Amino acid sequence: MSGQRHATMVAAATLALTLTPLIGIFEGVGWIVPVLFTIAVIATAASLTRAAGRGQGLQTLAMCAGLLIVLTAGFSGGTAILFVIPTPDTFSHFGLLAGEGVAGIVREAPPVPAEGGILFLTLFGIGLVAILHDMFVVGLRTPALAGLTLLTMYLVPVSVAPDATAWFWFILPAVSYLWLLADDNLRRVSAFGHRFTGAGQLVSQRFPSPMARTARWSALGFILVTLLSLTVVPTNTSGFIDRIAEGYQGGGDAGLGDVNPWAQLSGSLNQPEPVDVLRVSTTDPDPRYLRMHVLDELTSDGFAPNDYDDREALVLDDAQGETFTAEIENLRMEAPVLPVYGTPVELAIDGNWERDSATDVIVGNSSDMGDVESYTLTYTDSAPDAEELAAADGMDPDDERWAANTEHPDVPELTGIVDQALGEATTVHEKVIAVKDFLSVANGFRYTLETADAGNDEAILDFLETRQGYCQQYAAAMAWMLREADVAARVIIGMSRGTRDGQEWVLTSRDYHAWVEVYYHGVGWVTYDPTPTSGVPGAVSFPWATEPSPEDDATPDPGESANPSTDPSEAPSTDTADPSPGAEAPTDGPTGQAADNGAGGGPAFNPAWLLLLLLAALPFAPATWRILLRRSRLGPARLSAKTAWDEVLDLALDYGVGLSDSLTPRQAAGVLAQAAPGAREAATALGSAMARHRYSPRGADPTGLADAVHDLRSELDQRAARGRRVQARFWPASLLVKLSAKQAEESARLARRSARAADRVRTAVRRPRRSNSRKDRAVTRRP
Amino acid sequence: MTFESSPGQPPQAPAPLSPQEFKATAEGILTNVEWVIEGKSHTIKLAIAVMLAEGHLLLEDVPGVGKTQLAKALARSVDCSVRRIQFTPDLLPSDVTGVSIFDPEKRDFVFKPGAIFGNLILGDEINRASPKTQAALLECMEERQVTVDGNTYKLRSPFMVIATQNPVEMEGTYPLPEAQRDRFAARLAIGYPDINAELALLDRREEYNPLDALRPVADAEMIVRMIAAARAVHLAPELKRYVVDLVAATRQNAQVRLGASPRATLQLLRCTQVLAAMDGRDFALPDDVQQLAVPVLAHRLIPTTETTMGGGDTKAIVSDILRHVPVVSHPGRY
């Protein structure tokens, strides 16, 4: 097998091995076939072009063409000629697919089915990586750089689904990288000719070198050390990528098709531009929140999505108290559950809907909100009295729902925090108020869409330590802390009430919200919202969320204690004792949200785009580096004959003017002047300036050298052939030389060090050296 | 009994020569000598450089190309004492160094200085003398003094030996031993003139020998000042390193049995200084070193038998070394 074919195969194989971590983020393994096919096509294209003796530019073009053909054959949607020749329509179809894929990445939790847009993006991304990989490994012979491409492959699953990628997936990429380096080095060594053992015996090409065993053991050792340190060192994986990943926690089995409510929540809140989701007209003058999901299963990963296993036919309770009617128009909501106000008593809707008895959530049985254009809902929305709540007990521990609504993972640090937060509180209501106050702005909590990582094992501890987050963290923290204090509590995901638009309410994607329900014996589930109102545009205040005791004795406050009894539905909007001082009545003011966006880091951008951007920018990196290097050398602050000459030497390399090390600066200038006759004076000036700089006690005057370099460069550029010119700009040889020189230096240093170490070991075990080189030296008297 | 051979101490600290004065004077000598030897300005320049570096010069070439002419022209251009020794097999060491003769009037031995007591010594056909006579030159050339009958006599300053030898006709000759060859700072070959130069030579020599018309352009005192000025030329550390690298490369070269000595390093540097000064510079460049490397190093190397049998010569070896030794060494690499 020829050298390049072997190298190409190694490159393709290493890339394929690095794909294994992706298994975690896709459903099934069917995606592997097209991905491997893509890699194979690209490798074949590269190998054939190389075998035909074509340069790197054509090889890259061939690989790109291979990728394009694969994508066209697989995804043209019938727009291609003869299945493989793309037309302009094909590209617009690709654009659609890419958009669909990006939307899927944002919306769905891993494991995602590998099909449609996501598969397209996957193949496209892996194809680009494969091209770069082949370029680094075979074309440019810089396999060390291929570590970057392998890292990209590993980074994607790690950032999208940290849970789905276990530590052992790291082994295969690491091993494949070592394989890559070893193979390249073997080729390099073999290029010198025959190999010898230390004792001077000839060994065959296939035979491992005497250092191979040491190398293998040290490679194994390094991997072990890395893995060990991975398990010991606290990792910091929080970042903009993690915010989306956070929603997927525990999302191994969402049980609801493919949409995880947490993911939908954070995805919607992070959308750059809010879109209208629902339009509601209700007889209720002051509507509260629209309830959608109930999350009551708490694991160490947080509140997990509900499976809604206890479904039964949709039978609604009879109305108790004042009823309201809401007409809800669906603009673009897609959800398996129905958003409802308070306690529904009548429902007019198309489709097949069931009720989950444990949570009272109305779940679609093969029906989805996406299919519903509008529905009418009649509901009651009673407001419990703060005094009544203060007197009520919590859930009876014998209640069958007790276990499901109070169980929580054992986190000792959290127990301490909760004990401290509760203080003197004994009754359920006191505990609820204490926890809510603990999470208040007055206690230093801040609303922001950016979450920070403090390095704790549990996300809740991070939140309580950094004291910043959004409704997801607030709701989950409050429910968890209450459960820690033996109060039955659960998390609700739904929509806040939005903004008023005439007689109607408009709910946008920004109005997705999470809050808490607490169970009171005799009263039932009562809603609390711990999130600071500044962060929630359609926030509603709940009058019962206060301490009733002082009002019992004192004269009635004009606010809450009088009103709720008379008209519970009217009161909450204006007069509440919300713990957050900055709380405005946010009924119809999107300004709060806008201001918060500014403070909270603005809309999150999609990591996939960032990755694409980085990939797109990669080819320009060497050119940019080269330009920056030139600027820094020729800048007035640093300019000297030495920096100018360094630049000249690099220019010579870039434009293929051979300057041997044994040439003096003047001779080198002469050679350059031959290559660029128009810049003879510039070259001579540069050469003699360098000679003066290096050899004269007075140094050289750098005036005018920058211009001379520019003259020389433009002349060289004009005289160069076109290929050479492009290469000099985008892939300058001088950078490559620098990289490989550094690499050579490092490996030489390593070899010396290991040789010394081996000598020391040998001396220690007192084994005489077998080499007779010392005797030789004594005879010849020459080193 | 004493004999003052030298004119005393070197002249009292004359004003230092400026690079321009140095250049002008050196060019004066150069033009003068070129009047006699046409079309060989580079060789003449190197010869002058060796002289001003207080080195000894070995001219090795076939008969009739002007070895002796060059030596004589060089000697005449400088107003100083010039002695000529024609080396023959029967020449005795005492002819070179001098001898003590009994003076009946004074009833004592009196030292009669030999031919070596001059500023410029022309040793013609040096390889025709017997080894013991050649050896007599040893002490003189290196230590610039003569010891006869236990008395040591200092030689004049400046002191320079220009020896010529014929590499072709080896019958009845005694090739210079290594030790002696190493004492010559440089070996130069003149080579045949090109056609135009030879035509000009014919025209010139129709009427008279141009050598007779030569007038000195510098005196001994001026030469001493020039020597001092050349020694002040700046040698950058990188340049010294380059010279050391070059010499080290001759010692490691596989085609060479014996490399150049540290004396070679010293003399190469001194000649480099002069060449830089002749160019009007007060700092030396690797370009100067490269011009001098072959003349200064090649005659000191002893090639291996394989090289000699293969037709290689030491000049080619030094040129090859020049092509491979980096001008700036990278201490961190390898």
UniProtKB/TrEMBL annotation, chain A:
**What SMART domains has UniProt attached to this entry?**
TGc
- Give me the ranges of the annotated region Disordered: 539-600, 747-783
UniProt entry keywords in alphabetical sequence:
Membrane, Transmembrane, Transmembrane helix
Name the InterPro entries on file.
Bact_TGase-like (IPR052901), Papain-like_cys_pep_sf (IPR038765), TgpA-like_C (IPR025403), TgpA_N (IPR021878), Transglutaminase-like (IPR002931)
Feature: compositional bias, Polar residues: 562-577
Q: What parts of the sequence cross the membrane? A: 7-25, 31-49, 61-85, 117-137, 144-160, 166-182, 214-233, 608-629
Annotated Basic residues bias? 763-772
Compositionally biased intervals (Basic and acidic residues): 773-783
Q: Which residues form the Transglutaminase-like domain?
A: 463-532
Lineage top rank: taxon: Bacteria
Q: This chain belongs to which protein, by name?
A: Transglutaminase-like domain-containing protein
Mind giving the lineage of the organism this protein is from?
A: Bacteria, Bacillati, Actinomycetota, Actinomycetes, Glycomycetales
